[in-house]
Amino acid sequence: MLAQESQLLFLIVFFVYGLAFFVMGIALFLEASRSPSLAEAQLLLPLALFGILHGLHEWFELFLEQASWMETQIAEDVFIIRLVFLAISFLSLGFYGFLASRLQKRETLFRLRLPLITLGFYFAIIIFSAITAYKSLPLDTPSLANNLIRYLLAVPAAVLASIGLRIQAKEAQKDKRFPLVSNLNWASFGFGLYGFSQLFVSPLAVFPATHLNNQNFFLLTGIPPEVIRSITALIITFGLVRAIQAIEVERQEQFQIAQEARVDALERVKEEMDAREDMRRELLRHIVQAQEDERARISRELHDETAQVLSAFSLELAALNNILDEEQSDLVPNLARLQDLSRDMSQGIFRLVHDLRPAQLDDLGLVPAIQNLIGQECCKMDLKVSLNIEGKSQRIDPLIETVLFRVAQASLTNIARHAETEKAEVKIRFNKNQVALNIIDEGIGFDPAEPFSPPAGWGLAGMRERVESVGGKFNLESSPGNGTSVAVLIPCNKKEE
Questions:
Q1: What is the edge-to-edge ordering of all strands in the sheet holding 423-430?
Q2: 286 to each of 280, 291, 293, how far by Cα in Å?
Q3: pLDDT at residue number 427
Q4: Is pLDDT at 263 greater than 80 in this prediction?
Q5: Can you tell me the distance from the alpha carbon of 129 to that of 211, in angstroms, rounded to the nearest whole number?
Q6: Contact indicator for 57, 82 with CB cutoff of 8 Å
Q7: Which of the given ranges, 2-11, 91-100, 118-127, has the highest pLDDT on average?
């Protein structure tokens, strides 16, 4: 019964031993593949290989022990495979220690010359003792190979890994990565203890196995070395898995920082674009305002000066006609023609004055100005236009009224000239904080996506710029054979009296 309990305990210890390292190896491998940019993750790849191979070796040894209890014959190649697994695992561990040690400064590594010299003497003594014993004594070759692997590979590799982890912890401490520092120190301690446990091998007539072996350790402590190795495996796995978690947290923090930086950059770009758009709109607004001011100035000058001069000229012609006597009757036809020309010029100037700046727009507002446009100008263009007003008509910002009037004026002119239709509709909708204008016709339409279509020069770009200058939206919908719809929506406030 005692033997069975001992065997069961042995199985549990070896299973936990192998499981701890195997889980550690898988976790390290997954983290390294997930975060290849982190230096720690790249360094942990050899540790991952060690954990996986060493875990498989311990399960392999568990299988061999079970086979020996059952007195099953095992081929010699199986033992060789086990030893290969063991050797490669420790070589991977040593390779990690070598890579991690390179993080240390050269002058600090120079201080290790004494430990390295000591390690050289250690290798020389082990190898000399093994060669001497092998020549003089009949030794079990697999046992000798197992002991040499642990003496020459396991112990130095574990020490190097412990030093490498400690160096990584110091490097992490410089960057104040304290969670990573603590866990790496735990793993470093575990590997140091693990290296010490590898000195206790199978009893063999080879120094130091004659004294440092698992039997003497058990007699001295009452605990098998495998138990110590299992505990160290759990410590190492605990430290490295927690280190992985710390690296993952750092990776998430870096990702969060990168995301925040990206969001900040996008916000800055958006702010710059918004600022440029505001500047563009303000510039357009000033341009539109300057254009309308110039139109108003020219209109006033034409009305106040040129039109008055023409009126005075017409009156002078009429007065001259009255004082001509019968002897000068041949001049009457010429004088009449001058009067007609003067009258036509005056009418032309008054139309130009109205086109430049309709008086109804300034005096009465948008709706009366458009009504006058439809009643007088559209009749001259043989265009029948229906006007629909939704909401309460009200005065709004003069510049916005001007923009809406110019869009309506240009759109109706385009319809009369190009749409090949006699009907059109104008809709004006007043809401609380915005005003909408729609001009619709059922004419021939066109393709807005075609840059070289005939309507390209109809002033659509100018209309859009005018609307955008006051913060509005301009939309054009048209297709060949389906007419055209111009829609304008401008936010506005009621004009203060």
A1: 384-390, 423-430, 434-441, 484-491, 473-478
A2: 10, 8, 10
A3: 92
A4: yes
A5: 13
A6: yes
A7: 91-100
Q: Which residues fall within 8 angstroms of residue 67, CB to CB, at 6 or more apart? A: 74
Question: What pLDDT sits at residue 47?
Answer: 80
Cross-strand bridge partners of residue 451:
none
> What are the sequence ranges of the domains in the chain?
2-265, 361-491
Mean pLDDT of the chain: 75
Helix, strand, coil percentages (3-state) for the chain, rounded to 5, are: 75, 10, 20
149 vs 141: CA distance, rounded Å: 12
- Identify which of 183, 215, 217, 211 has the alpha carbon closest to the alpha carbon of residue 197: 217
Structure token digits, residue 82: 């086990």
Q: How far is CA 230 from CA 38, 236, 333, 444, 454, in A?
A: 30, 10, 130, 89, 87
Q: Rounded CA gap, 236 and 244, in Å?
A: 12
- Residue 472's nearest CA partner among 392, 378, 396 is 396
Task: Give the CA angle between residues 422, 384, 412 to the nearest 5°.
Answer: 80
Give the integer Cα–Cα distance in Å for 477 and 450.
13
Positive or negative torsion for Cα 57, 58, 59, 61: positive
- CA 84/CA 82 separation, integer angstroms: 5
Q: Is the pTM of this model over 0.85?
A: no
Q: Is the peptide bond before 358 cis (omega within 30 degrees of 0)?
A: no
pLDDT (tens digit, 9 = 90+) per residue, 359-399?
A: 667 778 888 888 887 887 677 677 888 889 888 888 888 88
Q: Could you give the CA distance from residue 429 to residue 438 in angstroms, rounded to a whole number?
A: 9
Angle at 179 between CA 175 and CA 183, to 5 degrees: 115
Domain 361-491 has CATH 3.30.565.10: yes
Contact in structure between 201 and 147 (CB atoms under 8 Å)? yes
For residues 124 and 96, the answer to whether their CB atoms sit within 8 Å is no
Q: Which of 37, 12, 469 lies closest to 231 in space, CA to CA?
A: 12
Distance CA 468, CA 284 (A): 8
Query: Where is pLDDT greater, at 326 or 83?
Result: 83
Other CB atoms within a 10 A radius of the CB of residue 396 amount to 19
Q: Helix H segments across 382-470?
A: 398-414, 460-469
State the Cα–Cα distance between residues 400 and 294, nearest whole angstrom.
17
pLDDT by residue (tens digit) across 395-425?
Answer: 888 888 888 888 888 888 888 888 888 888 8
- Residue 69 vs residues 11, 64, 345: alpha-carbon distances, Å: 12, 9, 127
- pLDDT tens digits, 427-440: 999 888 889 999 99
Q: Determine the pLDDT at residue 438.
A: 93
CB 471 within 8 A of CB 404: no
Q: Express each pLDDT in 134-192 by its tens digit.
A: 666 555 667 777 777 888 888 888 888 888 888 878 878 887 788 888 888 888 888 88
When computed from its CA atoms, the radius of gyration of the chain, rounded to whole angstroms, is 49
Between the two ends of the chain, the Cα-to-Cα distance in Å is: 108
